[in-house]
């Protein structure tokens, strides 16, 4: 089965770069630029991995984590975020909140291909037989 990743990122440039990193790791990326697009993709398809940027269009994605989980079922979730010049503690607070909410992966920006590879390998292990075809 094809390994797929849904990436919620509102910066087109960052989304493109992140998507290419996941492609290089063997995943087929789909980009959602806002919450409604991400929710629609989650309703329509099954995913191997869900990657959420914390701060999207003035929203904190973590406030909607339960809704993402409900639609994503058992899909592993990675949360990514960068620092904020106006609020330098925002990134660490968001990542700590994500950890407390028990997301599977924390991905502080900036990250590199090695970080993506590790998350993909761990997501593959979590997905295990779920991605296998049984007859």
Helix and strand arrangement:
Elements lengths: L3 E5 L3 H13 L3 E5 L2 H10 L4 E5 L1 E2 L2 E2 L4 H8 L4 E5 L8 H11 L4 E4 L4 H15 L8
Parallel strand pairs: 1-2, 1-3, 3-6, 6-7
Antiparallel strand pairs: 4-5
Can you describe this structure?
There is one protein chain. This protein has 135 residues and is α/β, with parallel strands linked by helices. It is built from five helices and seven strands; from the N terminus they run E-H-E-H-E-E-E-H-E-H-E-H. The protein has helices at 12-24, 35-44, 65-72, 90-100, 113-127; strands at residues 4-8, 28-32, 49-53, 55-56, 59-60, 77-81, 105-108. Helix 1 links the parallel strand 1 and strand 2. The two termini are 14 Å apart.
The separation of the N and C termini measures 14 Å
Report the principal-axis shape.
Answer: globular
The string of secondary-structure elements, in order, is EHEHEEEHEHEH
Q: What would CATH call the homologous superfamily? A: Response regulator
Give the strand order of the largest sheet, numbering strands 1, 2, ... along the chain: 2-1-3-6-7
Q: What's the pLDDT, averaged over the residues?
A: 90
Total number of distinct structural domains: 1
Question: What is the gist of this entry?
Answer:
This protein is of the alpha/beta class and 135 residues long.
Key descriptive features of the protein:
135 residues, Rossmann fold, five-stranded parallel beta sheet, two-stranded antiparallel sheet, 7 strands, disordered C terminus
């Amino acid at each position: 089965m094809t390994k797929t990743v849904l990436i919620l990122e509102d910066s087109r440039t960052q989304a493109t770069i992140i998507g290419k990193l996941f492609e290089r790791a063997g995943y087929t990326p789909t980009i959602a630029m806002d919450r409604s697009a991400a929710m629609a993709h989650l309703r329509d398809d099954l995913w191997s991995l869900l990657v959420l940027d914390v701060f999207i269009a003035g929203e904190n994605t973590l406030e909607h984590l339960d809704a993402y989980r409900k639609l994503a079922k058992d899909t592993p979730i990675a949360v990514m975020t960068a620092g904020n010049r106006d609020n330098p503690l925002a990134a660490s607070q968001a990542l700590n909140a994500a950890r407390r909410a028990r997301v599977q992966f924390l991905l502080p920006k900036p990250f590199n291909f090695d970080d993506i590879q590790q998350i993909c390998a761990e997501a593959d292990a979590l997905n295990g037989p779920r991605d296998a075809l049984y007859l």
